Amino acid sequence: MSKYDNPMSRQVFSLPDLIETQYDDLEEKARLVLSFQEIFNIQRIVLTGCGDSYAASLAAKPIFEMLTGIPTEVVTAIDLSRYYCEKHMGVDCRNPLVIAVSNSGTGARVAEAVQRARLHGCYVLGVTGNEESPLGMHSDKILKLNIPEFEGAPGTRSYMVSVMSLLLLAIRFGEVRGRYTMDQAMDYRYDMRAQGEALRKLLPQMESTCEKAAEEWKDLPYYDFVGAGFDYAAAWFGWAKMLEATGKVAMHINSEEWFHLNFFARDAKNLGTVVVGNTTNPGLSRTKEMVHYANVLKRPLLVVTDGTKEDFNGEEGTYVQVPAPKYPLNMPLTQFAPVCLLAGYISEMIGEKYGRGCEGDWSFAEGGAGVKNSEIIVR
Amino acid sequence: MLKNYKLETVYNGVHDITEQLIQAVEESGVQEGTCLVYNPHSTAGLAVFSPWDPDGFVDLDEEIRRLVPTRIDFKHQHDTPQDAAGHIKSALLGVSDGFIIHEGKPLIGGSQHLYFLEFDGPRKREFFIKIQPDV
């Protein structure tokens, strides 16, 4: 165990067991939460949530489309609650299906978004651990999460469970709609559960690599998180964890947009750049080009991949290996682990409190007040 | 004697298993007796049917579907609509067929073949043949 062991890293080390136990809890629930009729009724899907739940939606969106063939959007809670076009809600008999994710269920904006969605005729599936929460009360159906208590840290366990619940729903929708056989669906599920063991085997390597990177990067003032398509959610999530855990300035972008924007940043040698690039990603060639030019700019570089340095043309940098599942759809369950370790170790090394400890100027956010206490407007 | 056979089926596949039946009886050496063919699955059936016009299988498939359409309002919701329909088709058609063994061969007519009917698929399947001599 690292001498910089911290609540966030302990959450990461609890993930293998959590993957296995949560799979056992959620598989049956995801199978039965919607009936055949409800699943066949789906014409479009909107995934919504805030913060980590939004990242989980980003991770699951391409999987929903790949497995179900149903057009799927990720819409932020405020966009759904205040801006989403009314003409696109309540069509084709209670469509789109809005899947709203929030473990606590108490965020004001998600509660507002689902109320508006239902007002205008959408069907709402809430994914939450709190049936009595505003999200729970304003959902047509609830996929009930049951995440065991753990010491507090920027959401790591809850993110994995959100991703898993969405992936299980996607697998189920595709199975019921006859996109593949029940045997194939079960193989996807078995592979999902197997990611617990796959992660368990790689964690010692991840720990040492991320601890060393954190030592080298702890005094850097900025960080940039890059990933495309299937990997973008992990990059987005890394940005979020770095902000929450360390309070340092961070950015996130996809590998194409990086060439249009983020590469302009000056002081490149002090800009820690984390690239998420799995070897099955259709956008890998662009990510490899991005890695090359990050080196040209002499940026400190950490690559999170299921492959090796050779998969990136031998480009210099620190490489962290994440599990390579049999089915890439299960990649999002584990590929975020290194960014949590990195952020947690840096936070520990520099003595920074998570979320600034909700102290001083940050005290308004105590107990999640910043996201719970907001005027609800439903129209 | 009990023999086990493996099958890899296709979606709604019709698999002729007459040869396995004849072979199993021959290998048993039983001249007079009975034999039972058994399918241990709940979404597949066994049927004796004429092999001579392939369109006959289309008729059979269509009639089975007419009797048990794949609906989405089945009460059994644990798996898929196709699976729910498959359970009923299997129950209606049955999972076993018995044959008389006479002079070392199964007594089957010239227009009779034995078929393993897949109501789901593709799946890895199996069936058993039990042969008993007369006492």
Describe this structure in words.
Chain A has 2 domains: 7-194, Glucose-6-phosphate isomerase like protein, domain 1 (Rossmann fold, 3-Layer(aba) Sandwich), CATH 3.40.50; 201-356, Rossmann fold (3-Layer(aba) Sandwich). Chain A has helices spanning 7-13, 15-32, 36-40, 52-68, 77-83, 108-119, 134-137, 157-176, 182-217, 232-246, 255-260, 284-296, 337-350, 369-372; strands at residues 45-49, 72-76, 97-101, 123-128, 141-144, 222-227, 249-253, 271-276, 301-305, 318-321. Chain A contains 14 helices and 10 strands. Chain A has 379 residues and is α/β, with parallel strands linked by helices. In chain A, the strands form 2 sheets. Chain A has a 5-stranded parallel sheet, with helices on both faces. A 5-stranded parallel sheet of chain A has the order 7-6-8-9-10, with helices on both faces. With 135 residues, chain B is of the alpha+beta class. Chain B has one domain (2-133): Jelly Rolls (Sandwich). Chain B has 3 helices and 8 strands. In chain B, the strands form 2 sheets. Chain B has a 5-stranded antiparallel sheet, with helices on one face. In chain B, strands 2-7-4 form a 3-stranded antiparallel sheet. In chain B, a hairpin with a 2-residue loop joins β5 (96-102) and β6. The mean pLDDT of chain B is 95. The A-B interface holds A 31-32, 35-37, 40, 175-176, 178, 181-183 and B 11, 72-74, 77-84, 120-124. Chain B: This is Secondary thiamine-phosphate synthase enzyme. Chain B: It comes from Lactonifactor longoviformis DSM 17459. Chain B: InterPro entries: UPF0047_YjbQ-like (IPR001602), YjbQ-like_sf (IPR035917). Chain B: Belongs to the UPF0047 family. Chain A: Its EC number is 2.6.1.16. Chain A: Keywords: Aminotransferase, Repeat, Transferase.
